[in-house]
């Protein structure tokens, strides 16, 4: 139920992030170990747990339990879940592959700006009678 546009956005974001890391990041940021920034950070661990519990599981429960009653509302919530899961994947990829800190910070901004459009579509579908 996720749009082709969201799947293309995910594929484009992988390529775009790799190109940014390879060509556009200044060498100063590449010498700093970006993965060490998040290793012992309590706020980062709380952020990851909050996102997993609140965003993914509650949205998944909404889709599973409301799916038989409100198909149009649920079908508009699925692209948001898809984009959110791909954002989690991309953030994990940038941390695991030791991308520079500006790229690691760019991924949530990039996905959240795209996610605003899916949330808008979801809210319009949810509150129209």
From TrEMBL:
Protein name per the record: DUF7733 domain-containing protein
Transmembrane residue ranges: 46-65
Domain DUF7733 span(s) in chain numbering: 3-127
Record keywords: Membrane, Transmembrane, Transmembrane helix
Pfam families attached to this UniProt entry: DUF7733
């Amino acid at each position: 139920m996720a749009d082709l546009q969201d799947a293309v956005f995910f594929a484009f974001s992988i390529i775009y992030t790799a190109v940014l890391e390879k060509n556009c990041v200044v060498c100063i940021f590449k010498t700093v170990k970006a993965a060490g920034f998040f290793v012992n950070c309590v706020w980062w661990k709380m952020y990851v747990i909050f996102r997993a519990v609140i965003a993914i599981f509650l949205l998944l429960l909404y889709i599973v339990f409301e799916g038989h009653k409100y198909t149009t509302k649920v079908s508009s919530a699925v692209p948001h879940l898809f984009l959110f899961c791909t954002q989690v994947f991309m953030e994990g990829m940038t941390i695991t592959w030791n991308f520079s800190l500006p790229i690691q910070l760019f991924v949530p901004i990039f996905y959240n700006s795209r996610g605003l459009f899916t949330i808008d579509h979801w809210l319009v579908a949810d509150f129209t009678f």
